């Protein structure tokens, strides 16, 4: 009697816990759908052609669009990538392809991991202290907050991510490829650029796009570096607009019309990130197919 | 064997040489080798420099913060961590005597001027409590979802789709959660959830501190209900919990997936129920799971935008989760731009240094726990 009760008890507990686990997974997905669904729902109703093509008017009842901020985000991400991608990829190559120098690569790998955990607001403050203040001093205040400073802060976030993903992807290339290339008389540089990097291209490109998606959504590093602007500017030496900064300003401000623009801005940001995520999947799957064929 | 092939240079040179074979061999060969050496050296040093830059980035980060925070460190020392006053500007207030009466002189209240004061305890408290509450909410959900993803989802063929959704949740920027929390969650709490919790918990003895605060007005201490704004520690913790769900879930999933099959099959063979074998699996991966939780903690502690938008931004310690609060990150986001006065800015940088040290420590420990676990089991 008591034995069958114990059996019943443990089976019941198991069923209850199973239901709870299924509930946990469903809850996460429900939250995702709730958040994204709400953002898309309100965003779509606030989105218009003018939003994408016009700049702020200064009139709170009829605030115009966010063309300047969309351009700003694209330029900031491009500038940050121009700094961050070459450095990140080269550092990743060093971590993966110079195993003879493991005295240096071990600690550097650890430091790169540590850097990915730096809070983004701290990166913004570093950008202010290290770029904005000295540049302002050198130019006697004619250049202070600027797109360059914002791009530098974003590159700071990008470099360790790109370095670590590049390293991981290069490690997936079989050792025999390198040995074959070296045995044919290719130099180390030729081996890396003509054999190893092409072999890992899809993975490296995925890592780069992942990092670009991450920095496109960053706000905190830009608060004290790019500062934001209501003007359409393509000159990174000026205070520079970004989608995230403009959304933050509008969302925390008092005017309902601007809040509607913030919703629309979030939708545009999410759409940009979705396009990036989609291209990642396309690149990754094409890469997988190529490797299957090879 | 033909004479030409015998005369051709060694394979490694001929492969890349554009020179005709008739030209003086030793010269072209030397040129090729020199160019190859230069190419290798250039690449090697470019890689070394880029990698060294990573070290330089971390060093400059710490050096700049310490240098700029130095005035505050010298002024306040370690006491900064336990001082609870944060006043950016000096304030003027009437002096009161021991009985709480205004002191008058010539019919005017005697005024005293309080100098600016800076202490980090309110923001340390805010960060600690909001991160802790976020973990309390997120960890059970994440762990149960991870168990589901590893033990159930593959059989239902939804593991890929569910994982993709959770990874997409991780890619949504902090700002989007902030806007959602500010416009949806905060009003919901102010109008419905807050009053409802108030009704339920207020009659319970010992929980009065959650809804009432003591304030000193004109020398008398009175108790008044905390106004429900929806922008308080509780809302902040909830949005933090939502934001750390994906990372805790996906890392725990990787940890659990690395548990050897034989461990699970062994328990099932001994007659364990589904849940009992899950407990064995969780126990086997416990240090990795601890790492996943610490990664979530690091993320929660450093999170800025969403928290800034809903936590209420009040530099005071209140025991109630329904009072507005401030975290280190939100303090920096709010005040750094306006901090022109030297000590104020140095104090903010001191806070940034504390925040950096804390999240680096969490990250290092967490990575050690997770990486050690997944790598040692070797199935990935």
Number of helices of chain B: 14
Count of the separate structural domains of chain B: 3
In total, how many beta strands of chain B?
Answer: 8
Number of strands of chain A: 0
| Distance linking N and C termini of chain B | 52 Å
Uncertain spans of chain A = none
Please tell me what the overall shape of chain B is.
flat
In sequence order, what are the helices and strands of chain A, one letter per element?
A: HHHHHHHHHHH
Keywords, please?
heterodimer, A: 294 residues, mainly alpha, MetI-like fold, 11 helices, B: 380 residues, two-stranded antiparallel sheet, 14 helices, 8 strands, disordered N terminus
Structure description:
Chain A is mainly α and 294 residues long. Chain A has two domains: 46 residues; 243 residues, MetI-like fold (Orthogonal Bundle), CATH 1.10.3720. In chain A, helix 6 packs antiparallel against helix 9, helix 7 runs antiparallel to helix 8 and helix 10 runs antiparallel to helix 11. Chain A is globular. The mean pLDDT of chain A is 89. Chain B folds into three domains: 76 residues; 31 residues, no CATH class; 258 residues, MetI-like (MetI-like fold). In chain B, 66% of the residues lie in helices and 7% in strands. In chain B, the strands form four sheets. Chain B has a two-stranded antiparallel sheet with strand order 1-6. Chain B has a two-stranded antiparallel ribbon with strand order 2-5. In chain B, strands 3-4 form a two-stranded antiparallel ribbon. In chain B, helix 4 runs parallel beside helix 8, helix 6 crosses helix 8 and helix 13 crosses helix 14. Chain B is flat, with a radius of gyration of 31 Å. The N terminus and C terminus of chain B are likely disordered. Classes of the chains: A mainly alpha (294), B mainly alpha (380).
